[in-house]
Specification:
single chain; alpha/beta; Rossmann fold; 6-phosphogluconate dehydrogenase C-terminal fold; 2 domains
Length: 302
C-alpha cells in the first residue's frame, strides 16, 4: 500500500500548492520545502501543512517526494535527493519536458531502491476542480513494489475524474512542442506584433471585433504567467526547434501569397486548414463555443 507521508520540493509555488491541497484532501500528511523561508512558512500556514527548512529532513522519511521546481533544476535535484530517500519510496516530477528528466530517473532507480515516475499535469495553478483535466504519465521503474505503488497513485487521480494518458519521453516532448510551445509562441508574438505597430492596446480595443477580442484575452492570460517556464519549454525542447523551422517556411509562403495577391494559393491554404480542422471532435460546435466565450466577456463589459 502506498504510504501517506508526502513531501513537496517547491511546495510554496503555484503547482506545489495545488498538489499540496489535492493530496491533503486524500488523507496524506504533507511537508513542503522551498528556498524562500518567508513564503514557505506563509504557504504552510495557509495550507495547514508542515514545512521543513532542511532538505534531507524533508525527504528522508517521505513515502512520496514530488518535485515542483523549474525544469533546469529538476535533474540536479533528483540526483541530490535520491540517496536520501528510504527504500520503496516514490519520487515524481511535474516538469513540462521529459527527455532529460526521464534519463536521470532511470539512472537513479538503478542505483537506489526507490520508485520513479514522471508526470505532467495539463493544467495550471489556477485550477479548482481537476475533473476531466489530463495528466500525462511516464512510467520509469523501480523496486519489486513498483507496479503496485504506481497503480495506487494513478487510481487516486482517476477517482477524481482526471484523465490519465501514458506515453514515452520522446512522444511527450514532441507533442508538448505543439500543444504548449506553439500557442505560447503565437500569443507572445501576437502581443509583440501589436506593440511594433506603435498603436496603444487601449486604442486598438475600441476597434475590437470578436476575433481580436478573444485573441487579445488569450494572449493577455498567457503573458501574465511564468516567463521562465515558457522560455524553457521552447528553448530547451529540440522538438520545438523543428516546429520553428516549419513555421518559418510557412510564414515565407504566406508572405509570398499575400504580396503576390495570389488568391488561388490563399484558398489552398485556407482549405487545407479547414479540412485538417474537420478531423477534430470540437469542430462542429466551435462557433458555438466561440460565442459562449463572447457572452462571458461582454457580460463583464470587456
Amino acid at each position: 500500500m502506498i504510504g501517506k507521508n508526502l513531501s513537496i520540493i517547491g511546495g510554496s509555488g503555484g503547482m506545489g500548492q495545488v498538489f499540496g491541497r489535492y493530496f491533503k484532501q486524500h488523507g496524506f500528511k504533507i511537508t513542503i520545502f522551498a528556498r524562500n523561508e518567508d513564503k514557505l512558512k506563509a504557504v504552510a500556514k495557509d495550507l495547514e501543512v508542515e514545512y521543513e527548512l532542511d532538505l534531507e529532513k524533508c525527504v528522508v522519511n517521505a513515502d512520496i517526494v514530488m518535485l515542483s521546481i523549474p525544469i533546469h533544476s529538476t535533474s540536479d535535484m533528483i540526483e541530490k535527493i535520491a540517496p536520501m530517500m528510504k527504500k520503496n519510496s516514490l519520487i515524481f516530477d511535474i516538469t513540462s519536458l521529459k527527455l532529460e528528466t526521464s534519463m536521470i530517473l532511470h539512472k537513479v532507480h538503478k542505483i537506489y531502491p526507490i520508485n520513479c515516475v514522471s508526470i505532467h499535469p495539463m493544467f495550471g495553478p489556477g485550477i479548482k476542480n481537476l475533473k476531466n483535466y489530463g495528466i500525462i504519465v511516464l512510467r520509469i521503474g523501480g523496486t519489486n513494489q513498483y507496479d503496485k505503488i504506481i497503480n495506487e497513485l494513478l487510481e487516486i487521480f482517476r477517482s477524481d475524474g482526471i484523465i490519465i494518458t501514458e506515453t514515452t519521453p520522446d512522444i511527450h516532448d514532441s507533442r508538448i512542442a505543439i500543444t504548449l510551445g506553439v500557442p505560447h509562441m503565437f500569443n507572445i508574438l501576437f502581443l509583440n506584433l501589436l506593440k511594433r505597430t506603435n498603436k496603444p492596446l487601449t486604442e486598438l480595443t475600441t476597434f475590437t471585433g470578436t476575433t481580436f477580442l478573444l485573441q487579445k484575452v488569450f494572449a493577455e492570460s498567457i503573458i501574465q504567467r511564468e516567463m521562465e517556464m515558457f522560455g524553457e519549454i521552447q528553448i530547451e525542447n529540440e522538438k520545438f526547434h523543428e516546429i520553428l523551422d516549419i513555421f518559418e517556411d510557412l510564414i515565407k509562403e504566406y508572405k509570398k501569397v499575400i504580396k503576390n495577391k495570389d488568391l488561388n494559393h490563399f484558398k489552398k491554404l485556407f482549405s487545407e486548414a479547414l479540412e485538417y480542422s474537420k478531423e477534430d471532435t470540437h469542430f462542429e460546435d466551435s462557433y458555438k463555443y466561440f460565442y459562449e466565450f463572447m457572452k462571458i466577456l461582454k457580460g463583464k463589459k470587456v
